[in-house]
């Protein structure tokens, strides 16, 4: 009894502390790009969308109606739902006893994927809540179908169907688990259980109708187009990432928990073991043939939730030292996850992550870009409309500026993330006309570097001649945007693109002395580059001109450069620093174009060691 009271108190205290931390983070963390698009969907309310069923947008609409168009306004419904999940894990584990149940809840709080669920306004929040509700309903039905079991199951199936396409996998695993268990087969012979299933199936109707009316675009993207469906070595990386997220000791406990599907264990444990084990097995196998480019580390969470309820019973059979190590690793993982979110929420933290090669680009630069757009648009004629390079920019700027209908150019990112058809439905795909003043916002760092010049040239082909650019660099240049003020009906003229440049020497992270060589290249279609100023942090330390040929660069850029000096695009200069200059510094370039433009380009971070 004393241990139970201690576990219950610890659960309550940690739940409250985490909730406070999550609210604090959610009120400061910039919107993730998907969140911004879901906000845009909430401004175009519908039963279903190209990428998702409607529930995520509906929750954001509710949140902003009550809390305003703020970070917390978007996220508070998801924080509320996410805070319920540990309680449901406690309820799932209750048949094992009160002490194991409270400990299971503690595991759910400390496990980063479930403990911080709700900080972001993502469909995984209601979907995982739905999975837990279905687990509760299924467990009750296995003891004997009653109306409470029907209600739990129906609610879970409805919420899941309105949350994400991926919930199909949860349904499939649950059905297989019921068919394996004798009590499950008996439950399936009860008509009341099929009533719950029918209610859940009806919730898919809006998504089915959307797909039937749009050439199955959503289904094709989610289940065909985004996945290679051929064996790939990245599957091992997926498993390694899971082991790191879960921590190796907890993963071992989860695997041991999944072994409780055998007949000698009570049916409630077999149900959770089968549901969780089959889910993990399915996702681990899917990792070898499915999409490896976009984030998928969170996919197995429904399986983890089922198994977490069994882990305290597993740990009870381990030595005291192993139990302590398991809890210690999980506490450390929770701390790392908390620290990571705090870093991403601050500008200084994002710069530090960028310096470490882990820049969170999808969270970065939106407020700075929005302010730059406000200032630039204020200097243009009244009525100037925005054009975004792709859906991420359109959604993030839309949220920051309160403009949910920003036009967006056709871009590979729109198709890669399954948003092109939705933008077309909203009439937001811009076809390239310039019948009035437009301010084009380009995400230069969102394009593969070798394809950046070709992307600029494609803008020329669609929009005509481009004016000198305004460059916005965020997080010490890790995030780069270009603003182009497009006048109406431009006269035919050669198209001058923004510059593309790179510093080859010194390398990023290299240690140099007070005297060192800076070498690199720079190109600018039609106008060329007259001179280059090398800066250390913000101070000019040297000048350079392009005086050497570099055929490799021409090939790297696909042979499309129309720089008038090509292939003479390489520059080299010597930097000599004053005494007392030491420590980590950032190199950058100011590129003076032949069209009168001046563009800042981020260079490498170097360590100055006067002793070298």
From TrEMBL:
Keyword Ion transport (UniProt): no
Molecular functions (GO terms): pentosyltransferase activity
Main location: membrane
One GO BP annotation of this record: lipopolysaccharide biosynthetic process
Keyword rRNA processing belongs to the record: no
Membrane topology: Multi-pass membrane protein
Keywords: Cell membrane, Glycosyltransferase, Membrane, Transferase, Transmembrane, Transmembrane helix
Membrane-spanning intervals of the chain: 76-94, 101-122, 150-181, 193-213, 238-259, 271-289, 301-318, 325-344
Top class in the EC scheme: transferase
Source domain of life: Bacteria
Domain Glycosyltransferase RgtA/B/C/D-like: from-to ranges: 53-210
EC number in record: 2.4.-.-
Single GO cellular component term: plasma membrane
UniProt-annotated location(s): Cell membrane
Name the record gives this protein: Glycosyltransferase family 39 protein
Organism in which the protein naturally occurs: Denitratimonas tolerans
